[in-house]
Amino acid sequence: MAHGASANAISLWSMVAGGAAGVAFAATAWWPDAARLWWLLGAVMVQLRLLCNLFDGMVATASGRQSAVGELYNEVPDRVSDAAALVGLGYAAGGMSWLGYLAALSAVFTAYIRAMGKATGAGSDFRGPMAKQQRMFLVTAAAVYAALTPREWQPCLGGEHGWHLPALVLAVVVVGSVWTSVRRLRGIAIRLREAQQ
After folding, report:
1. Residue 2 falls within a domain, yes or no?
2. CATH number of the domain that 114 lies in?
3. For residue 92, is it within any domain?
4. Cβ atoms < 10 Å from Cβ of 43
């Protein structure tokens, strides 16, 4: 605030950080000799994205300047950042591209259900177990682990061409996001029925 930063600009920077995370993860497959560095950079970018998500709301609240399009700036960069990081992880060394796209789709769907709850008057439902913070924690933890441990210590199911750590993380994100979506839908439905009574 002291430097005149706007909440909307911070939201856009979160999208840049999310995109950079996705590129860094994919770079682990493009330049395997520097994979450890790319994993760490991806983890840092994911956390920077989350910090931007935190700061944009804080700046908007503290400044008292509510933008007419603030909600768009708050939501759209989040969806782009989620998709970029997860798709990038799908292209990472040990990832599966189709699983990255599926994880991105399922993550966006959880946010869509939350937005639908708000739009219908049931309120925003942030419950997990695979909300944004949990997804990004899992991605960050996996990236740091891949960067700091020998390849032999990294989990793999099904041999050399099987499911490596990035693919396993994406699978957990997909399953957790489906579970989260079901829980949110049920919660919203209950609140809507209660409001009708």
Report:
1. no
2. 1.20.120.1760
3. yes
4. 23
Q: How many C-beta atoms surround the C-beta of residue 190 within 10 A?
A: 11
Count Cβ atoms below 10 Å from residue 75 Cβ, excluding itself: 14
Question: Cβ of 115: how many Cβ atoms within 10 Å?
Answer: 15
User: How many domains are contained in the chain?
Assistant: 1
Enter the pTM of the model: 0.90
- Per-residue model confidence as pLDDT tens for the chain (197 residues): 777 778 888 889 999 999 999 999 999 999 999 999 999 999 999 999 999 988 887 887 777 777 778 788 888 999 999 999 999 999 999 999 999 999 999 999 999 999 999 999 888 888 889 999 999 999 999 999 999 998 777 777 766 667 899 999 999 999 999 999 999 999 999 999 988 87
Which domain, by its residues, includes 167? 7-196
Q: Is residue 74 part of a domain?
A: yes
CA pair distance 48, 56, nearest whole angstrom = 12
